[in-house]
Amino acid sequence: MTARQPGWIDEALREHDEHHEHAAAIPDREQQVLDRIDRARRRRPKVREERITMSHGAGGKATHTLIEAIFLDAFRNPLLEPLEDAAALAVGGARVALTTDSYVVSPLFFPGGDIGELAINGTVNDLAVSGARPLYLSAGFILEEGFPVADLTRIAASMHDAAAAAGVQVVTGDTKVVQRGKADGCYINTAGVGVLDRDTDLGVARARPGDAIIVSGPIGDHGVTIMLARGELDIEADLQSDTAPLNGLVAGLLDSVPGVRAMRDATRGGVATILNEIARSAEAGVLVSEEDIPVRPEVRGAAELLGIDPMYVACEGRLVAVVPGDQAGRALAALHTHPLGVQASVIGHVTAEPPGIVQLKTAFGGTRIVDLLVGDPLPRIC
Amino acid sequence: MCLGIPGEVIEVLPDQPDLARVDVSGVRRVINIGLLADDPPVPGEWVLIHVGFALSKIDEAEAEAALQFLEGIGQAYADELEALAESRIE
Amino acid sequence: MKFVDEFRDADKAHALAAKIAALCEPGRQYKLMEVCGGHTHTIYKHGLEDYLPESITLVHGPGCPVCVIPMGRVDDAMALAAEPGVIMTSFGDMMRVPGSKGSFFDAKAAGTDIRMVYSPLDSLKIARANPDKRVVFMAIGFETTAPSTAMTILRAAAENLPNFSVFCNHVTIIPAIKAILDSPDLRLDGFIGPGHVSTVIGCRPYEFIARDYGKPVVVAGFEPLDILQSIYMLMLQLSARRAEVENQYARVVPWAGNATALQVIGETMELRPYFEWRGLGFISHSALAVREKYARFDAELLFKVPGVRVADPKACQCGEVLKGVLKPWECKVFGTACTPETPIGTCMVSPEGACAAYYNYGRMNRHRVREAAEVGRS
Question: Which of B1, B66, B70 sits opposite C93 (nearest CB)?
């Protein structure tokens, strides 16, 4: 079959026969199969491929499987297990958050920003949504032989501006150069440290049935902008990346609603990925309504043309927050007062059933599942 | 694969008359209208776009007729629901 | 979005559902096939089966051009991609279709130059930009897409492009429908006819279904209301004991089809004597090949393709799903060994495949919306 570890089909068929005994007790054949699927989904993740593919970088199923099966397995410790955007650490009496990110976006310069700005904002955001006040960043550069110095200067200037806007400083870094062809111009790796000086306990596992799910603005802007900026598709649109530092927005939200359960910034894999992370961690259901999800008409149009779903498209300056249901109004009010949160809206709720599954109520009135992304429709988005 | 999207013709490219710029919800793309050579679309007309080609013109009159039919069905249903709500058989 | 949103109104759906339910004869079961993969996708995406009474079953047909490509042809495509100096270009849906040694996606991971394109014209662009490489376009699709490939070949000919060719896997819909009609496994009552294929071939080619087999056909659009209205029109015919071809998608489909499109297909391509369809076996005159006049654009002549017939893996039941004999969840490996991220067969790979549609959308639509049917019956 495909380049996969051998024997996996036989293994699955064996399991099918094993479960057949158990399943035969259930009269409804279709329900049997659905149960089989649920059991299969809950199994320990295993990487079946022999080589890394672009899917592993898409932020969807393959990425999650890779992280759980290889990295979590290798490094396993309680600090890593929550797999949140930043790790919460106790260091000499202080509580700090630590995060790391790498930026491989192509093209490096695009409407609304560049790789440098993305790197600063992305790192700041991972800290902010973990409830930390972002303070210090590191920046490691991997440069390709032949990369124009003028471009590097531009990127550094962007990073300076972005850091100033976010109120953080780049305090250490590293530079490596690799031969022509071994890196695509410039890759940036960052780490960020922030101080956890709020009494918050954030994490998607804390989501409860009845909680409201809020998104801070229209989704998909960044991913579609990048797709179009690659110039391969001959599509013109008035779109910009939404890259922005969210720490101000988050602070405003936490000041007003200290009971926020969880926050994430929607990057690779889009809002759909976060919704799935919520459902899986909290072992709850998520039900969102298509009509309530803000999407710019141009993003919708481009997505229709390309046959992709905005729910899976990366953002770089959008917050997804889970708040107790009765505090949704307060949360929205707080977000609306900030320039980045003007279009914040409640897109859905956490439900008790079915656990681990995200559903979308379509404008048409039907419901469908929004699963983790499979494959990689938009590579190298961030 | 059956993916066909309606788009509005904005302009036919002056130097390449088998190409036209179309608008889909604010997004613009140049597509090939060569398959409609018998009756080329003009700005303002709508076409069905499939893998970079216009396959057919969208007939606004037919679309209107289709919507009228649906409106009619919808109204009849609404009337019936109302009647159902108002009738009592006890 | 104009011409889209108006056809997604839930209230009108309930209205249509009530009318459909009212036309069902008590005690009778109806089996309607939607041929086109795009229709399968819409049906599951919008949970349309919830709007139908239990006596109507929708059977999913073989109209997914990715799904019907046999593994041997995928292997041929992979061999082409692996040729030195070749850039293979393909639509996104083909990228993860598994052959016996992997998919385009796997090959790409191993270093083969395979690029996703949105249009065959993008492929031409790549050819122009890479004169030292030979660009091959993996042409798939029914008559909907064949005209675009044809136009591209004509363009390449006009420009005298020396480094562009097409690996032609276009298939035609009528032989597939005929194979379904002649299949002893199925007893269908009517057809929801292909939408976009019909913009090219028109509605007349379906007349034999009504005339020779006595089954009604309604050519349908792709929005949920289009499909519901088409089902309503089919039920009207069935209750009146009529069997005709009707066009619900008249806003897009001209009865006579697109003469220019048919002409360019005829100019650049010809019917193969026979072609293997996954699940349906060999069907005569069901696929297109590049004409001799354009041989310099025919990848099968320019390169050596293995041309080996590969049987589907024993566990794969795509064939029966494609014929509508099995529902996706009835396949032994559905959801366990065969999932969207680890697909065994094409029904799970293509977004239009019945299995992918059911896995991604349909699984949760078990709690049927009965209110429309209830109102209809009361």
Answer: B1
